[in-house]
Amino acid sequence: VRVSAKAVYSKYSIQPASPMNFGAIIKGIKKTQTIMLENKGLLNFKFRIHQAPKDASANKSSKQQESASSTTKRSMPRKSSFSTQAHLNVGMFTVSPCSGSIAPWGQQKIKVDCLPGTEGICEEQFYIDITGR
């Protein structure tokens, strides 16, 4: 009996390259930008987006952290649990969808809305967690 296998890991790309900056926005007016998450591997993978811990900016030496914006940041920490939450609200930002599954060579558009309710600068950090990377 001949047996064989090929060990692989998830391959992906995240566009746009960092940073994502919404610039100046009029209070009460929503502005939207899109992140494209693409599966470049041979296996399905699940993803989940969640808010970064408040001390995440102190951990910039981590090889897994990737800056995505001056208003939002994303990186790839290891996590094993996944939720089915449709959107994530943090400060003046809403991210959707914030979880899902992507087939090989498939893509998922992730919408980031910014709706400023108060004057001032708002910066938040988000993480995109991908299984099997």
Automatic annotation (TrEMBL):
Q: Where is the composition biased (Polar residues)?
A: 58-82
One of its GO biological process terms is: axonemal central apparatus assembly
Region annotated Disordered, chain positions: 54-82
Any one annotated GO CC term: axoneme
The record's section on InterPro entries has: Hydin-like, Ig-like_fold
Q: What is this protein called?
A: HYDIN protein
Q: What gene does this protein come from?
A: Hydin_1
